[in-house]
């Protein structure tokens, strides 16, 4: 899945994510969504429509069916396949937001057979920019942006510290989870949750939660890729 130096004293080659690794990440994301479906429903019930868990689990199951029936030939193709499926299958805001994120990610790595650390940073930045443009949200609005913005920042910092894809995605996932938790005291300024005003404080944002799950699935897939080539 990726190449690492075989010699006992040679430093390992940086992890490169293949198409199979990207598909594995989406598979892990889908499994997490199915397992945590009710948790996401409960989070959304407190401040939204109570449909985020069901919509995302259903959408990612459909995305996996599509990936299995028409296997992608590149990481970009995998992102495009999932994006178009989610846009068709997921209602509410989540489908367009995640779909736009993955379409932008696909464009960022078009033509790449494997994804190195720079590519991973480009994927995350492009996805984040797509979410911001589509959702018109900013950090602090109590949305998925509050998980993505620190994730992108942490990914860039990890790359500057000479981290490989595994390091970059681990840093992104850790930061996304912290950002997710930091939505709890915020007052929502976007979406249905904003209708609650001050009553939205004290609840964790479901979109930030599913975003953190996605980034952790990507980090886990990168770690498996690195371990398999060690």
Identify the overall geometry.
Answer: globular
How many distinct domains? 1
Which CATH architecture would you pick?
Alpha Horseshoe
The SSE string, one letter per element, is HHHHHHHHH
Continuous helix count: 9
CATH H-level superfamily title = DhaL domain
Class by helix and strand content?
A: mainly alpha
Q: Could you give a quick summary of the protein structure above?
A:
By secondary structure, the chain is an all-alpha fold. Helix content is 66%, strand content 0%.
Q: Would you mind describing this structure in some detail?
A:
- By secondary structure, the protein is mostly helical.
- It has a single domain (19-228), classed as DhaL domain (Serine Threonine Protein Phosphatase 5, Tetratricopeptide repeat), CATH 1.25.40.340.
- Helices cover 66% and strands 0% of the residues.
- The chain has helices spanning 19-35, 37-47, 52-69, 75-89, 94-108, 117-135, 145-160, 165-181, 206-228.
- Residues 1-7 have low confidence and may be disordered.
Mind sketching the topology for me?
Blueprint: H1 19-35, H2 37-47, H3 52-69, H4 75-89, H5 94-108, H6 117-135, H7 145-160, H8 165-181, H9 206-228
Note the main attributes of this structure.
single chain; 230 residues; mainly alpha
């Amino acid at each position: 899945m990726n190449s690492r130096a075989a010699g006992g004293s040679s430093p390992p080659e940086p992890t490169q994510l293949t198409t199979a690794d990207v598909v594995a990440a989406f598979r892990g994301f889908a499994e997490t969504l199915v397992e945590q479906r009710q948790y996401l429903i409960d989070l959304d019930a407190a401040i939204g429509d109570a449909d985020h868990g069901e919509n995302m689990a259903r959408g990612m199951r459909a995305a996996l069916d599509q990936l299995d029936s028409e296997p992608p030939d590149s990481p970009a193709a995998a992102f495009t396949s999932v994006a178009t499926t989610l846009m068709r299958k997921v209602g509410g805001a989540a489908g367009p937001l995640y779909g736009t994120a993955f379409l932008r990610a696909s464009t960022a790595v078009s033509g790449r057979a494997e994804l190195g650390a720079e590519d991973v940073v480009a994927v995350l930045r492009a996805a984040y920019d797509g979410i911001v443009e589509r959702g018109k949200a900013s950090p602090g609005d109590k949305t998925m942006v509050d998980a993505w913005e620190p994730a992108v920042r942490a990914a860039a910092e990890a790359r500057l510290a000479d981290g490989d894809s595994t390091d970059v995605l681990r840093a992104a996932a850790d930061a996304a989870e912290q950002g997710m938790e930091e939505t709890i005291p915020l007052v929502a300024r976007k979406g249905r949750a904003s209708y609650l005003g001050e009553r939205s404080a004290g609840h964790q944002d479901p979109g930030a939660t599913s975003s953190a799950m996605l980034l952790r699935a990507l980090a886990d897939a990168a770690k498996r890729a690195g371990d398999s080539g060690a």
